[in-house]
Design a protein that fits this description.
heterodimer; A: alpha+beta; four-stranded mixed β-sheet; 5 helices; 4 strands; B: mainly alpha; 2 strands; 71% helix
């Protein structure tokens, strides 16, 4: 075991050379690479931090915008709801007015129809009554209806002569109105009876289709008549009472 | 049987004899340098690291981490020096398994040279770190009486480093040679495996001790020590 000092010096030189070589070809490249990678990682982390901050800012902005949109949506919804309610009220009012108007029109139409129906009922009833009366008189008493009407009118005239004289005054004409032309015998009877009481008064016979079947005497301001109108009215009242009774019976189960 | 490769002459260059210690040292140097060049030649930041580069990075960062643990700070110059010590000793000892290879660390000249380099490096690192006055002041700390003891301590460090490395590597080589002659089929293999382990451990111990010595010389005194030396 000995030390060769020349070898020692050579080994020191070799070692120093190895230090330089490894520093040049090993440590520097490796450490520089590591440092570069660390710097790159640091930069990327910084970028990631910035990106995260930007993302958070964008997310916050998005949240703010979303909140603003929600508020705007709520306000818009409230506005639309109020407008819809107002429009609904207007439409309801219009509909109510229209319904009332239509109801009024319907009611007027109904009244008109009722009037027409009543008039028709009166007319038909009068016709029927007149026909029945005529047939009954013919069958039972062998009498004409017009003759009986004339008798009846003459009969009503006698108790009322004082009133007729006052009403007639100085008139010279009396008017007999009927819906259908009277028979000649009836006209003669009426003429005879009236001229017997009022010799100065002439008599004129007039037909009026709008008048109820019967005979009407107009003398000045006085008027005597016999028509089937009063009978028809009585018949109408009777029918209405019967219908009302039927309606009450039908409406009762429904409460 | 030659105990030292210094006595084995390999060849002559311009009249200068090159013994086995120097020759195998060049082999180790060439191997380390060529490997480093091959691995780091395409080292660019835009190229992802391959497994060899990763292996080198692990080795270098492991050495740097050990130095940081011992010295308490990262110091690149200390990494170059102690890392080279470790790689050289470790590679020399690992190549022991190659038949015919004589590890340079089995030569007392090599271990002496490494110990001397540590002895020289300690004051150089200390002076570069603390300045000449600051470094020389460490020899009279904690008092002037300690000057001879500190000087003896410095030299004994180098001697112990040299003898420790030489003794371990040389003894392993010698024991392997003896066992090879006695029982050539079994014990040499076991001894070679054991030699690999002890070689790595010795490389680690040698580099760590060098790092401890150098970092002890370069460590800055704390403010309390400055006020009360």
């Amino acid at each position: 075991m000995s030390i060769d000092w020349i070898t020692v010096a050579a080994q020191i030189a070799n070692f120093l050379a190895l230090v330089w070589l490894l520093k040049r070809f090993l440590y520097r490249p490796i450490l520089d690479g590591i440092d570069a990678r660390e710097v790159e990682i640091k930069d990327r982390m910084q970028e990631a931090v910035h990106a995260k901050a930007e993302a958070q800012a964008v997310a916050q902005s998005y949240q703010d915008e979303l909140q603003a949109l929600n508020v705007a949506q709520a306000e818009m919804t409230e506005t639309i709801r109020k407008a819809a309610e107002e429009q609904r009220d207007v439409l309801l009012a219009e509909a109510q007015t229209r319904v009332e108007r239509e109801h009024g029109a319907w009611r007027a139409h109904l009244d008109d129809e009722a009037r027409k129906y009543t008039a028709k009922l009166h007319r038909v009833g009068a016709e029927a009554l007149l026909t029945l009366l005529r047939k009954a008189l013919d069958d039972l008493a062998d009498q004409e209806l017009e003759a009986q009407m004339t008798h009846h009118l003459v009969g009503k005239m006698k108790p009322m002569l004082p009133e007729l004289r006052r009403a007639a005054g100085q008139i010279s004409e009396a008017v007999i109105t009927s819906r259908d032309p009277l028979s000649e015998s009836a006209e003669d009877e009426l003429l005879a009876e009236i001229q017997a009481v009022f010799p100065q008064v002439s008599l004129r016979f007039v037909t009026d289709e709008a008048q109820a079947p019967g005979v009407v005497l107009r003398m000045g301001g006085a008027q005597l008549e016999w028509t089937v109108a009063s009978y028809i009215e009585g018949l109408s009242e009777l029918i209405e009472e019967q219908l009302a009774a039927v309606g009450n019976v039908e409406a009762r189960p429904h409460g | 049987m030659t105990l030292s490769p210094d006595q084995t002459l390999m060849f002559e260059i311009w009249g200068i004899s090159v013994n086995a210690t120097i020759f195998y040292t060049w082999v180790v140097m060439a191997l380390l340098t060529v490997c480093a060049i091959l691995i780091t030649r395409n080292l660019r930041p835009d190229v992802p690291p391959n497994r060899w580069r990763t292996m080198l990075e692990v080795i270098v960062q492991g050495i740097e981490s050990q130095i940081e643990d011992v010295a308490g700070r990262r110091e690149r110059h200390l990494l170059y020096y102690a890392g080279t010590l470790f790689l050289f000793v470790a590679m020399s000892n690992l190549l022991l398994v190659i038949p015919g290879f004589e590890p340079p660390t089995a030569s007392l000249s090599t271990t002496t040279a490494l110990a001397l380099s540590v002895l020289i490096a300690v004051p150089l690192f200390g002076i570069s770190s603390r300045g000449l006055g600051g470094y020389l002041r460490t020899y009279i700390e904690p008092s002037f009486i300690m000057l001879p003891f500190n000087i003896i301590s410095e030299f004994s460090r180098g001697i112990s480093l040299a003898i420790r490395l030489y003794g371990n590597i040389m003894s392993g080589a010698v024991i392997a040679a003896i066992l090879l002659s006695v029982a050539p089929f079994f014990f040499p293999v076991v001894m070679d495996v054991l030699g690999l382990l002890t070689g790595l451990i010795q490389a680690y111990i040698f580099a760590i001790l060098a790092t401890v010595y150098i970092s002890g010389a370069t460590s800055q005194p704390s403010p309390k020590q400055k006020e009360n030396p």
